[in-house]
């Protein structure tokens, strides 16, 4: 496939389960196109089990480079540090509890090398519970740059765990911020002329835990949403009408009971696997 060098950027913290990290790293090192380097940020002290898991992989794979941080800074800060350690301009993001499909890097990296005008790409994700064979829903996102801009006014326009971007573009724009760490970065990239593309297939299994709906609700999440929407409005990405609409809708979703929020995510905001299979869709 030629000399397609790229970095993989990951971060892990103390609450991660060792078995999830193992599955994630296994999927990274069993790709049809292997990464040139894998930068793993240890975001603060970890458990002995996590250290042992990391050591096992480090002994087997010279591409794995560990960057330990003295304390937990949070994902955005950890990723900014990791970006400075990446040697290559193409950087693939990966979360410590998700699972790449075997051809993820081959598909995305080859696409980026063949389309130099694109600054960032991602793909759909299959959301699973407990086991990757138990896929319950799929998050589909639009394909073209124009469609992505429209979608971004309402929801996050890429699936962060599947993203591949140009490192220099991200660093030039100040990297990740705290609210939320990825969504605001994508808006900044759009506003500064970066070109987006989403591959129209699922290239990753996303771990969909039972407490995800709880973590996506409450006053703190609503306040974070409000801060983000204010920022999108202040930089000119949203009109006043779009800003007010988003604040009302998103705040309502954050503050309703978890059972109702779960229903909205499962049956309205996601493509349900059972329905997709019934109508002959592709996985």
Can you put this structure into words, describing what you see?
With 283 residues, the protein is of the alpha/beta class. The protein folds into 2 domains: 7-209, Spore Coat Polysaccharide Biosynthesis Protein SpsA, Chain A (Alpha-Beta Complex), CATH 3.90.550.10; 213-278, no CATH class. The chain has 12 helices and 10 strands. Strands 1, 2, 3, 4, 5, 6, 7, 8, 9 and 10 form a 10-stranded mixed β-sheet that branches. Helix 1 links the parallel strand 1 (7-12) and strand 2. Helix 1 runs parallel beside helix 2 and helix 9 runs antiparallel to helix 10. The longest helix is centred in the C-terminal third of the chain and has 16 residues, at 219-234. The radius of gyration is 18 Å and the shape is globular. Residues 272-283 have low confidence and may be disordered.
In short:
Helix content is 43%, strand content 19%. The protein is an alpha/beta fold and 283 residues long. Strands 1, 2, 3, 4, 5, 6, 7, 8, 9 and 10 form a ten-stranded mixed sheet that branches.
Mean of the pLDDT scores? Answer: 90
Q: Give the class-level CATH name of the largest domain.
A: Alpha Beta
Please outline the major beta sheet. 10 strands, mixed
Number of strands: 10
Instruction: List the secondary-structure elements in sequence, H or E.
Output: EHEHEHEEHEEHEHHEHHHHEH
Strand content: 15-25%
Characterize the overall form: globular
Rg from C-alpha positions? 18 Å
What are the low-pLDDT stretches, counting only 5+ consecutive residues below 50? Answer: 272-283
Gap between N and C termini: 26 Å
Share of helical residues: 40-55%
Total count of helical runs of at least 4 residues: 12
């Amino acid at each position: 496939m030629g000399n397609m060098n790229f970095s993989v950027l990951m971060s892990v913290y103390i609450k991660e389960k060792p078995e999830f990290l193992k599955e994630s790293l296994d999927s990274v090192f069993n790709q049809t196109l292997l990464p040139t380097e894998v930068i793993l940020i240890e975001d603060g002290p970890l458990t002995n089990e996590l250290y042992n898991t990391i050591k096992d992989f480090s002994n087997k794979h010279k591409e794995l480079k560990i960057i330990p941080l003295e304390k937990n800074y949070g994902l955005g800060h950890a990723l900014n540090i990791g970006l400075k350690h990446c040697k290559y301009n193409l950087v693939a993001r990966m979360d410590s509890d998700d699972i790449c499909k075997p051809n993820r890097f081959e598909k995305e990296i080859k696409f980026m090398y063949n389309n130099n005008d694109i600054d960032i790409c991602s793909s759909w994700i299959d959301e699973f519970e407990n086991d990757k064979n138990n896929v319950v829903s799929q998050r589909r996102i639009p394909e073209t740059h124009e469609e992505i801009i429209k979608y971004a006014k309402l929801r996050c326009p890429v699936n962060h765990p599947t993203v591949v971007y140009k490192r220099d573009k991200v660093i030039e724009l100040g990297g990740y911020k705290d609210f939320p760490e990825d969504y605001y970065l994508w808006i900044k990239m759009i506003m500064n002329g970066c070109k987006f593309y989403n591959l129209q297939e699922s290239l990753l299994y996303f771990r969909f835990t039972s407490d995800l709906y709880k973590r996506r609700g409450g006053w703190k999440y609503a306040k974070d949403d409000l801060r983000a929407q204010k920022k999108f409005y202040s930089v000119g990405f949203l009109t006043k009408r779009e800003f007010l609409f988003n604040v009302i809708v998103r705040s309502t979703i954050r503050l309703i009971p978890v059972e109702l929020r779960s229903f909205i995510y499962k049956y309205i905001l996601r493509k349900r696997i059972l329905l997709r299979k019934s109508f002959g869709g592709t996985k």
